[in-house]
Amino acid sequence: MNMKWCQVMFTFSIGGFGLQEFRRRVQRPCRHAVAAALAVAVMVGGRAFGSERWTPLFDGRTLNGWQNLYDWGKAWVQNREILLQADRKFFLCTERTFRDFVFEAEVRLPDKGHANSGFMFRCHKQRNRVYGYQAEVDPSARAWSGGLYDEGRRGWIWPRQPNDSTAAQEFRQRTKGAFEKGAWNKYRIRCRGDHIEIFVNGIQTTDVRDSTDREGYIALQHHGEKGRIYRFRRIRITELPSPPEPVPVAAEIDLTEHTPARMQNTLGLEPPPGATILLGQGHGVEQWRPARTGAKAFPWKLGSGVLTVVPGTGSILTRPVFSDFRLHVEFNVNSGRPGQANGNSGIYIQQRYEVQILNSFGRPNLQRDECGAIYGFKPPDVNACGAPGAWQAYDIEFRAARWGPDGKKTRNARVAVFQNGIRIHNNVEVPAKTGAGRPEAPTPGPIELQEHGNAVRFRNIWVLRRGKGT
After folding, report:
1. How far apart are alpha carbons 138 and 158 in whole angstroms?
2. Most buried among 166, 374, 407, 443, using CB within 10 Å?
3. What's the CATH number for 52-239?
4. Domain boundaries defined on the chain
5. Mind listing the pLDDT tens digit for each residue in 363-385?
6. How would DSSP label each residue in 165-187?
């Protein structure tokens, strides 16, 4: 082996810890040798873990740069470690925010008994509350260490379903042995744009795209196990340049720029650079969650890239939320009884404004509750529907309502819709929520696919964010 390459490998291997620690880790079971080999493979690919320029977030002596916003919980420094103790859940937070970065730290939980912790990142803080992304520290038999949890909001992002689900089983199988109970465990979190990666002791446990938060604080969690002390050390970060915006940033979108009378039929249209893939292109349902509170499993059926509504199970929502965007959705309606039981579904923009899906093929003079309608508000300009059983496409340009600093709406939402390449709505101003949509608000919202009792199918769904603050 080339001598220079040997030196590089050795420098990389001990870059995050001392020689004594390096020797101890080399003596671990074989699975860690595999992890080290994978890490070297990552380095060959151009992203060497040891090449970053690090900034310590903990000086080893004080809690400078950190704060506890809770009325409970204890944090102190001992032996160059941060120690947390509490009888209720609390978080020790950084005083400043971070956007795109690689973060590393080590954590050790008590050797015996119940314990749980996590590393918060890009999170938000208030007095007695911290919420947002969390890299899970889970020494229990569940073995979800390195999973991605949305603390105080959506719950599990990855793995995305309960303990007995296929996704959870696959997660445990792939990451088994990454976390060592009763030992120091090294976490690495990489965030750039909407791309989030988590590693535990060199093994990748999470690789997802989620755009809910682009910037926030770092925090250390004590889950509230009475009297138990959790230990953290070697906490550092390297900040990364932010990726380019997928489209030029603009305060407004002039929808007339995107609304010719006709465009090429977009069935099978591939997502452009910067788009978030919601279904298809090798992606499953990781970007979706059940709309029903307390649902324990994903309700619809996925097979060969096609997502089929299971009647009676409820609607689904995107995990990311959106403001201004272009949305591409392909759907296939089934033929049923005439009226609203005939291939019924819908796309709720921000969970507020519905574009209706229905079997309206060949019907003249469509009404405000038929396919292509902005439900209950405006019928489509023309009937562009395909026959039931044929795949169809919606391409939707949406500009969210604008709001003033006093929380009052200053401009209504606007939407342009193409169905099968034919414009059916041209830059329509929508003054309020439609159908069963939620009330308007200044906040972004998810996209909802509606379950309305019919086995409608979906495929090839992606969204391209546009404009400022999206």
Report:
1. 14
2. 374
3. 2.60.120.560
4. 52-239, 255-466
5. 888 999 999 999 999 999 999 99
6. SHHHHHHHHHHTTSS-TTS-EEE
